[in-house]
Amino acid sequence: MSARPNNVVATLSGYKFNGVEFYTKQRDNMRSVQNSGVSLVADVMLVSRAKDKNPRHDDMNFFGVIQHIWEVDYYKFRVSLFKCDWVENVRGAIKVEELGFTLVNMNRKWHLNDPFVLASHVKKIFYIEDPLDPQWSVVVRVPDRDYRGSDSEEEEGVHMEEQAFDFIIPFIETFDDIDSDKDSNYMRLGDETICVES
Fold first, then answer.
1. Which of 27, 48, 126, 142 could cysteine-pair with 23, CB 3.0–4.6 Å?
2. What is the pLDDT of residues 122-158, one digit of tens each?
3. For 26, which DSSP code?
């Protein structure tokens, strides 16, 4: 990355990385699906006060929404960046409720001077508005998928089969059609019948 990038930066409304689709919030607003939510786990230094002599390192979750997608061209390779609105992750803007769900207050923005993240560093999530308190949103994590950037359906271990469509409705034996003298394939033998009258 020491070489200067191209001065023209491609801006996109959607981006597919390792088989996972990401959209900007603006594009999400026009669709019925949500693909603009992202999370990032970063190693951060935690201090209890300004003169803390024993800071500790720990993983911290960051939650955000993609506002812009940029693809920076370095002539020999390209780097994809997401410009996100990040939720404040201190002072009560993120909480874990007693059932284990993570809730975030989407109105509390943070990291305004550091909004960018590499596309390769985030995981896709989506948010569901809490029906009891609309200022909070529940974070729903999307399961990891291992697409390796393949667009073909012939991935290892995944086989798609086309089933022929049959226009003839199959015959289904109903209780009205059952002849008590013939054995039925749909009834267990040896079970007693219990009649309940009301």
1. 27
2. 999 999 988 888 888 999 988 766 555 454 444 444 4
3. H
